[in-house]
Amino acid sequence: MSVKIIKAGIADSIQDAGRYGYQHLGINPTGAMDKYAMQVANALVGNKMNEAVIELHFPASVFLFMQPALIAIGGANFSASINGEPVPHLHCITVNKNDVMQFQQPLNGARSYLSVRGGFLIKKWLDSNSTNLKANAGGFNGRSLQKGDEIVFNDASNYSSKLKGEEYKILPWSADIKFEEEATEILVLPGNEWERLTDSSKNNFTNIPFSIAKKSDRMGYQLLNNPLNVIVNDELVSTAVCFGTIQLLPDGKLVVLMADHQTTGGYPRIAHVIAAHHYKIAQKKAGDSILFRFTDHLTAENLLIKQQQHLIQLQNACNFKLNEYLTHE
Amino acid sequence: MNNTDLSYRIISLGDTAITIDFGNCIDIEINKTVLKFFSSLQQQPLTGMIEVVPAYSSVTIYYEVISIKKIIAVGTTAFDWMKEKIIERLRQPIDEAENISRHVKIPVCYENEFATDIIYVAEKKKLTVDEIINIHSAPQYNVYMLGFLPGFAYMGQLDEKIEMPRKPQPENTLPGSVGIAGRQTGIYSLHSPGGWYIIGRTPIKLFDADKEEPTLLRAGDIVKFYSITKMEFEKIAATQ
Predict the structure, then answer these.
(1) CA dist., res. B191 & res. A35, Å (int)
(2) CB contact, 8 Å: B115 with chain A?
(3) By the CB < 8 Å criterion, does A237 face chain B?
(4) Candidates B79, B190, B215; nearest CB to A134
(5) In sequence order, which ranges of A226-296 are alpha helices (DSSP H)?
(6) Residue B40 to residues A21, A149, A323, B28, B35: CA-CA distances in angstroms?
(7) B239 burial type by CB count under 10 A (0-12 exposed, 13-18 middle, 19+ buried)
């Protein structure tokens, strides 16, 4: 019960919700960039929400299924195909032995998530399956997936009877991922050093869209902004930082910390992307532009609750449909 | 510890974390308070706490918004609730934790092959290389915090006689490299870009993912460096 990589993508890795409880040792949480998409992909196949998935970047890996399996793809739409035929995004799909899955072209977003029912049989490192690329630990041998890697599934069920000889079967329901009006803005909360900015820099922060620089990856996004200016420039001693922390670099440029961020930093914290909007920023890529807008804690927390409620509804609906499919058909 | 004159500020770090800042400075007494508060929170976590991270003069608590929202009134925030719980906790005396400091001796080879910047530092500071080695290996250093890389320990206080700024551009730095910056010294635990001047290398692994406790050092440890030859370095490296 496994899937084999027959061609490596540029940066595909095993990720889950992240590794918490070790940041005091400098061990960063890592985890999926877009946790919401990861959770949707898991819900579709009836997994626990935070089961490990494969995070894909375009060009993505080419996969060969060694046995039938129940899979789904969430997050960015990279035009998945099975044996050359396009298959829909956000659907549960029963794949057959020897099916080849590849990704033809990115239609939207930056990161796609491949989930497999039951998850992957991988030894956890410090309570998590996330790959820590810096520490070369966790996930699949602590690194990005390479040609020849074979990832074993936890689930040993045989789905061949469901296929009735067909190459694959697309299950007819799909995940509705719209839980809030699609707004272009990314909501932020002010950071502790926000007040250090000059008035004109403050205005620029929320009025001008920022373009994401080429030098952007799982660690952080550099923004192509006109340098922001500060009134005070006292040195800060290092403190803990977060996914979504927007730091002001000495040259006036901004950087948004992402999943592989360091645990601590000493640059001014201008703002923080709210947790409910991590998924939005995680799906941005170099060249995309983003507009920040301030919100408050109550709004931020309520959005997170709304997102969670949506996921639970999705999970319940998927489990209901899946049980029907697996027991009756 | 008497908390009555404990001064601190509570800072929002986005909507999932909160920082308690005891003074934005590098000060051993403040850091001791930080580490006591850190270990008290580890021993008795606040409801909804995911983890806690100490730094030089601050403690950051990461919290679980969704589980806290379930137990608080509608219209109130997990942030305000957490803030209140922190203030309550800081009103109580912070228990003197059992001595968490461990004494760790770390061998360092200061020979040129490893100490890629030691001659530059000697020139800048108008000292001999031997003087740099003596100054660097004389004190006992406190590990203030871990950060930057898995297992990277920020240690102080470095003698001001060898105080250096950061390099203008980070350079490729090998694991085990012993660097100095400002009044701090630290050891690169992994291969990484590094902005500190490198004056030696230890054969000891600072980070080992296969160990149950993957980092050699913890915040609160007391470190003493001792100088070794290249031959001794190779010998120890072979055992790692």
Answers:
(1) 28
(2) no
(3) yes
(4) B190
(5) 278-282
(6) 15, 44, 46, 18, 8
(7) exposed
Is the pLDDT assigned to residue B156 strictly greater than 90? yes
pLDDT tens by residue, B37-51 = 999 999 999 999 999
Residue of chain A minimizing CA distance to B53: A24
Q: b/e for A22-45, b at 16 or more Cβ within 10 A?
A: bbbbbbbbbbbbbbbbbbbbbbbb
**What is the ipTM for the molecules in this complex?**
0.96
Listed residue (A290, A271, A283, A268) closest to A212, CA to CA: A290
Kindly report the number of other CB atoms within 10 A of residue B11's CB atom: 18
Residue whose entry in the numeric block shows the structure tokens 């850091």: B31
Percent of chain A whose predicted confidence (pLDDT) is above 70: 98
Report the C-alpha gap between B52 and A191 in whole angstroms. Answer: 19
Cβ within 8 Å of residue A114, ≥6 positions away: A41, A53, A54, A56, A63, A71, A72, A73
Q: Is B157 on the interface with A (CB under 8 A)?
A: no
Beta carbons of B210 and B131 less than 8 angstroms apart: no
**Does residue B178 contact residue B185 with C-beta atoms inside 8 Å?**
yes
Burial of B129 (0-12, 13-18, 19+ CB in 10 A): middle
Q: Is B31 helix (H, G, I), strand (E, B) or coil?
A: helix
Query: Strand, helix or coil at B42?
Result: helix
pLDDT tens readout for residues A9-28:
999 999 999 999 999 999 99
The secondary structure of A199-218 as a DSSP string is HHHHHHHHHSPEEEPSS--S
When computed from its CA atoms, the radius of gyration of chain B, rounded to whole angstroms, is: 20
pTM: 0.95
Cβ-based neighbours of A111, under 8 Å, separated by 6 or more: A32, A33, A34, A37, A55, A56, A57, A75, A76, A282, A283
Q: How far is it, in rounded angstroms, from Cα A97 to Cα A158?
A: 11
- Taking CA atoms, B124 is separated from A140, B113, B116, B177, in Å, by 46, 19, 14, 20
Residue B230 backbone zone (phi > 0: left; psi -120 to 50: alpha; other: beta): alpha
**The residue to which tokens 């469901």 are assigned:** A162
Residue A10 near residue A141 (C-beta atoms within 8 A): no
Helices (H), chain B: 28-43, 65-69, 78-91, 118-125, 129-137, 230-239
What is the DSSP code (8-state) at residue B182?
Answer: B
Cβ atoms of residues A170 and A28 within 8 Å: no
Q: Is the pLDDT of residue A180 over 80?
A: no
Contact A25 B218 (CB under 8 A): yes
